[in-house]
């Protein structure tokens, strides 16, 4: 309700009627803003508290999280809606290198990207690849495991950077930054010191009976690990050279038709040792990739997820069928 004073030069002050009576409009506006700010601050505080609780629950339940990414069915243009860097982020690839079950898979994936696709990757994807390599190196320096894998990965990265220095995507300064990162990581890896286990009186592998050592050797899937383990002492070396060990390796990695293909004319299985046969097969066909955990593709929702962590699919409990995705298939999906 406007109130006009007696002075014609001034219209006077405006008044509004409230539950407490008549108040000046200017003062009522200030009071309203003060009340609004207080309620606004209280609301923000409540939201911050709730967000803090959600973050705490997320941190506490990070071990049971379900990282996954959905694959778009259709043409190649539709599939490129999910980039390589985004797929790495959604699948928690940086956390995978810190997990013993997923580390070998992630390292193999990095090896394929570095050796075959590095010069064709975008600048963002290149940064993600080298950031994950940094995470691998941090884990190697912390646990002092997989030093050979990291050494091979850095060597291949240096070779790929040298070969693609004149033909690559991204700026030349970014490519030079990658070279400096490889040199820096190589220096860090060279500084690692592997300490031998001290004689603490606990049971060691050499203290086990032959049957226990034989069962340990039978679970090795790579002949390099078998040979290196046999270098411990003479007894372990004799166990590693048994024909049973090389026979199990042949039967694990190769099919019977492949074994028959490498047998030369006028030779028979009785004349060949399993070790010689294994070396021939490995040279011609290569070894089967073995991973403790792999990515799998759901047949219902086309979600790419880690096998042990699952994914939020409403039909997975009814028909949990999925197909394994090898590192080569992953590269073909996101980096082709």
Plain-language structure description:
With 336 residues, this protein is of the alpha+beta class. The chain folds into three domains: 46 residues; 171 residues, no CATH class; 64 residues, no CATH class. Helices cover 54% and strands 7% of the residues. The chain is built from 15 helices and six strands. The strands form two sheets. It has a four-stranded antiparallel sheet with strand order 3-5-4-6. A two-stranded antiparallel sheet has the order 1-2. It is elongated and about 120 Å long. About 3% of the residues have low confidence. One of its GO terms (biological process) is protein ubiquitination. Pathway: Protein modification; protein ubiquitination. One of its GO terms (cellular component) is nucleus. It comes from Ridgeia piscesae (Tubeworm). It is found in: Nucleus.
Q: What fraction of residues sit in β-strands?
A: 5-15%
Q: Give Rg in angstroms.
A: 32 Å
If strands are numbered along the chain, what order do they take across the biggest sheet? 3-5-4-6
Number of H/I helices: 15
Strand tally is: 6
Question: Which descriptor suits the 3D outline?
Answer: elongated
What's the average pLDDT?
81
Helix/strand class: alpha+beta
Question: Level of helix content?
Answer: 40-55%
Number of domains: 3
Order of helices and strands: EEHEHHHHHHHHHHHHHEEEH
pLDDT under 50 segments (min length 5)? 55-63
Report how far apart the termini are.
Answer: 72 Å
Biggest sheet, open or closed, and with what strands and sense? 4 strands, antiparallel
């Amino acid at each position: 309700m406007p109130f006009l004073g007696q002075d014609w030069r001034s219209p006077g002050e405006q008044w509004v009627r409230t539950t407490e009576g008549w108040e000046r409009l200017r003062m009522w506006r200030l009071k309203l803003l003060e009340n609004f700010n207080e309620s606004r601050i209280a609301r923000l505080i409540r939201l911050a508290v709730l967000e803090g609780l959600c973050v705490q629950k997320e941190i506490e339940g990070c071990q049971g999280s379900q990282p996954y990414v959905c694959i778009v069915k259709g043409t190649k243009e539709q599939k490129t809606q999910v980039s390589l860097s985004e797929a790495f982020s959604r699948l928690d690839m940086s956390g995978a290198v810190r997990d013993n079950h997923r580390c070998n898979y992630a390292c193999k994936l990095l090896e394929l990207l570095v050796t075959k696709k590095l010069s064709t990757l975008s600048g963002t994807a290149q940064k993600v690849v080298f950031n994950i390599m940094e995470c691998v190196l941090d884990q190697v320096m912390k646990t002092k495991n997989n030093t050979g894998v990291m050494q091979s990965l850095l060597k291949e990265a240096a070779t790929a950077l040298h070969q693609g220095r004149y033909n690559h995507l991204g700026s030349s300064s970014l490519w030079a930054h990658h070279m400096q990162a490889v040199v820096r990581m190589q220096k860090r890896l060279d500084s690692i010191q592997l300490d031998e286990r001290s004689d603490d009186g606990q049971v060691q592998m050499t203290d086990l009976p032959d049957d226990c050592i034989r069962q340990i050797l039978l679970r090795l899937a790579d002949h390099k690990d078998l040979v290196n383990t046999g270098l411990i002492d003479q007894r372990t070396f004799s166990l590693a050279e048994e024909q049973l060990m090389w026979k199990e390796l042949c039967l694990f990695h190769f099919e019977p038709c492949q074994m028959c293909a490498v047998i030369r004319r006028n030779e028979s299985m009785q004349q060949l040792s399993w070790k010689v046969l294994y070396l021939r097969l490995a040279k011609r066909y290569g070894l089967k990739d073995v991973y403790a955990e792999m990515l799998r593709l759901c047949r219902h929702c086309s979600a790419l997820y880690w096998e042990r962590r699952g994914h939020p699919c409403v039909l997975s409990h009814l028909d949990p069928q999925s197909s394994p995705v090898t590192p080569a298939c992953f590269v073909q999906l996101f980096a082709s």
